[in-house]
Specification:
The complex is a heterodimer of chains A (about 120) and B (about 110).
Chain A: E1 3-7, E2 10-12, E3 23-29, E4 38-43, E5 49-55, E6 62-64, E7 72-77, E8 82-87, E9 96-104, E10 107-113, E11 117-121
Chain B: E1 4-7, E2 10-13, E3 19-25, E4 33-38, E5 45-49, E6 53-54, E7 62-67, E8 70-75, E9 84-90, E10 97-98, E11 102-106
Parallel strand pairs in B: 2-11
Antiparallel strand pairs in B: 1-3, 3-8, 4-5, 4-9, 5-6, 7-8, 9-10, 9-11
The chains are: A mainly beta (about 120), B mainly beta (about 110).
Chain lengths: ~120, ~110
Amino acid sequence: EVQLLESGGGLVQPGGSLRPPPRLSCAASGFTFSDYAMSWVRQAPGKGLEWVSGISGSGGRTYYADSVKGRFTISRDNSKNTVYLQMNSLRAEDTAVYYCAKETPGAAVFDMWGLGTMVTVSS
Amino acid sequence: DIQMTQSPSSLSASVGDRVTITCRASQGISNYLAWYQQRPGKVPKLLIYGASTLQSGVPSRFSGSGSGTDFTLTISSLQPEDVATYYCQRYNSAPLTFGGGTKVEIK
């Protein structure tokens, strides 16, 4: 069974200067992880879906939304079947549920989603 | 960036009604368009990709059409379990973008 399990969310101070900025993790199982590109998609409370970042199966290509470019970094460890999202310089508007999503082969369409992890940016 | 505009933002229809949701791209995206269903409190679920290809396991009452800039998601006979918010998503190039969503309720 294909499964995606996110972790690492919580309450974070704006800017992240008073504690280490969060790194979200998404552990995958049930498929050959390195064969698939992965993405992070977020959803602010009561709002719609926003694509955040994507990474190719090998990890050699990464993509970002303009809203997070230069602040967030996506990476993956195929030996651990895990994709990460390092989040720096956090703002209140980054508050959202962050979903990990598996892409279909050859198309950035998401056929499997994790349950999400909540990140709250507040002082 | 290419923007995706959905209409209406919400609708209310009776069980058995035909429901149509529209998604418009600010530039042509060929058929690189997907539709998702998000039931209340649940994660999104892929319904359609390639504008008109039904994802495995999705009921046949769902269908998609369109190409270029104008796309449609149709539910041929609305069922109670179709209460959800529906999102379109373009995937012709990064950054990927979603439409604002259409909330479907039962009248």
